[in-house]
TrEMBL record:
The lineage of its organism: Bacteria, Bacillati, Bacillota, Bacilli, Bacillales. One of its GO terms (cellular component) is cytoplasm. This is Aspartate aminotransferase family protein. Signal peptide: none annotated. Residues 1-23 are annotated as: Disordered. GO terms for molecular function: aromatic-L-amino-acid decarboxylase activity; pyridoxal phosphate binding; transaminase activity.
Amino acid sequence: MEMNGKPDVRDWFPSEDGNPEQRERMMELIEQLVRGVDELKNPDGVNLKGEKQRNPDFYGRLASQSVIPSEGVPMQEVNEELLKLLHGHPYHTKYFFTNILPMASIPGMLGMLTAMLVNGNNLWDVYGPAGAEAEVRVIAMMSKLVGYDARLSGGYTTWGGQGAVFSGLRIAIAKYDPDALKHGVPNNLYAFCSEAAHYSLLKSVEAAGIGSDHLVKVKTMPDSSMDVADLRSKLEKAALSGGVPVYIVATTGTTDAIGIDDLAEIRAAAEETAGRFGLPCPHIHADSALGGFFAFFNDYDLQENPLRFSAGVLNMLKGIQRKMRLLPLADSLCFDFQKLGQAPYVSSLFLLKNAADLRLMDLEADETPYVGHRGYGEYHTGYTLECSRMASSISMYSLLLSFGAEGYQRLLAQFLEVNLRFRERLAAEIPQADIANPDNPGISTLIRIYLPGSPRFSEEVGGTCSARDIERTNLLNERLFEKLGERRDRMFFGDTKKHLLAGSAEGQEIPLYVSKFFVISPHTRPELVPEIVQYLKACISEVCEEFSVSLAKS
Ligand SMILES: *Cc1c(COP(=O)(O)O)cnc(C)c1O
């Protein structure tokens, strides 16, 4: 279609009438992109192929070169430009172990596409009925999975595990003081999480105006779970000084070590202390952004073992199941479908045991003049921080139907199986390495290496090592980060400088540096483990040798 020699503006849009010509044009453009990515794939490395040089001057040059073209170019040519963005992009091959950065699955992408084809606004069911329907369904499905009463529970899709932690905090404040929405946040409120918690709560207390001085960090146990005795004493301390604990974030699946807090113990500590001081029980949010998907095993029969998982995986599942069955003790929780749910970004679900809590946050009808009236039912999202919302629930719905409970069980069990074999092989092949999260049956294995004669992991967490020894081992591990980093186009490992706090003999608390083997790609199969360990072994030998030489010189 041409008008005055220019393309018709309608060419940029899907057709109005469903004509096959426009559909074919659109499908060709999509096919061009999908084929283009396929042509860049390299299963022997971690990055897509391509020419991109991302040197220090890269962004500066982009900024100076980029201007809006006065006339647009054909979409095929734009697609070529889009594909160039992907050159050298990390891709989830079997060698991708860096962190909880999953691949977007086909059902997840199809759900997003479905949402885009009508572009409904999830703000209001009249604007986005498909998103509203999917959201109500997904909330009920996930409520039943974790053991909430789906007739009473509620929630919404939001911006990440971070958004869920923040949503929980807003509700926590409003539950304690419903007028805080009007007169501002009282200055004696406190929030609690463990030292291994994600920084989401830090940002939330800053943003909500509670202030990070009122965020209390609770000690962790060697398995990275919250030390509940320490929680108890810190709740008491806050209450004794006239403070009000309003919010406890229990991490059910920490981001590095996959430690799981015990919700039964946390709830008991919260209720007892609150009762003793005549305060209401704090709102307890289970930050299950990462770990929540292990609730898919809550009903798995470990005796019958219908999916024939290995004995090692069953053993891991036993510990996971015990703690995940406690999830319904939380007042709210989160499922990050963009993590283990295998959906594209951004797709996280905030789930609330009592939907009625949302009323505390809701705006009055006269404050939302655009929406909310004459809807189909009860659906009205004046309580979300976002105004317009994407219908990511459609992607979640697509995934839950495609994978089913069994599909999630098989995928997650594969991640566990790879870790299990990795741990066995590591122990057998690499004497310099210790596993720094040995008690966490999870999908990530933390690796810490040592020079001969240095005190090992179990001694470090025992609190008897000198600061000098721990710091020297940290330095050695940092060299390993560098070595693995230089070669990350071959295998992409993660690392962290904040695993656990080891007490030194001198009484300092020192975080341990560890490398991270995070299994997240469905293409990482158990058979690959020997090759990975051989690779790691070579890198570790080089690092230890180089480090010893540099020590001898200094
Ligand atoms: C990833 C993560 C978050 C943050 O989630 P986003 O989706 O990145 O906002 C919060 N808590 C935990 C435990 C996480 O693993």
